[in-house]
Amino acid sequence: MKNRITELFSVQYPIVQAGMIWCSGWELASAVSNAGALGIIGAGSMYPDILRQHIQKCKHATSQPFAVNVPMLYPDIEQLMDIIIAEKVKIVFTSAGNPATWTPKLKSAGITVVHVISNVKFALKAQQAGVDAIVAEGFEAGGHNGREETTTLCLVPAVRQAVDLPLIAAGGISTGKSMLAAFALGAEAVQMGSRFVASVESSAHENFKQKVISCNDGDTMLSLKALAPVRLIKNNFYHQVHDAEQRCATKEELKTLLGRARAKRGMFEGDMDEGELEIGQVSSVIKEIKPAAEIVQDVWNEFINTKKMLAELF
After folding, report:
1. CA 18 – CA 255 distance, rounded (Å)
2. Cβ atoms within 10 Å, residue 311
3. Residue 145 reports pLDDT greater than 80
4. What is the CATH number of the domain that holds 184?
5. d(CA 196, CA 106)
6. How confident is the model at residue 181 (pLDDT cuts 50, 70, 90)?
7. Which of 72, 145, 160, 179 could join 229 in a cystine, given CB atoms 3.0 to 4.6 angstroms apart?
8. b/e 124-135 (16+ beta carbons within 10 angstroms → b)
């Protein structure tokens, strides 16, 4: 398929693997890129030197385009950006912050910039900042999320109406059928996180992968809205957060409860009781751990076959 997204990224398929903390290192990113989609290294869980190593390893593992995702609330963001520019990364996804802060510098270095947004206001700000594309992420997603709790079904057409930038849909997408639905709403590509967490090449702990594919509907909940909203699998840590929020705990109390390395403890080290387990609602329909290349091909084939099936009905 050729459209604005595939041409912008120089990829075969309009499929993007999200840059997830503790789950998307160079092995996953290179596998997705080698499969014809766009792989992303998630820098949010990496110290600067670790990010440099992942970029260099990804370059050796694939000759195809890949990207780096940088949450702008990261404390060492200046070092991360310097490394990205020095390593000549061609595509950067920014999130959780003001796109005007880094877009000019990245673009002056010849980097394609994509920004993740959760509402129309931020989409307009991203367009004004000069980004090349945007990801409209509904609240079904895991990771950092929108406080407005706008679903992908509502967000994507609203953003499409407001801006003319190349548009990537995210949140609740894991199959070719959901990809086609996003295209019907105005998207030109999809970004999938949860589906790639449950991949062979994901750097997530095996305990976490198994937890994801055992999830049922209702097993996740949007939490920590007072800090940075994330969707969590319900475990002992989640219930501690829920209880604290029910009694209107302060931001400081929530920060103390969250502590340091809670997400690493859960998703990377495999503590399913006290770790922070970020995943999207779509985890309830993910039932297999597969190689990343197989996931890409399955999604694309189902997208094409469903499109043909619908064309025959009308």
Report:
1. 26
2. 8
3. no
4. 3.20.20.70
5. 27
6. very high
7. 145
8. ebbbebebbbbb
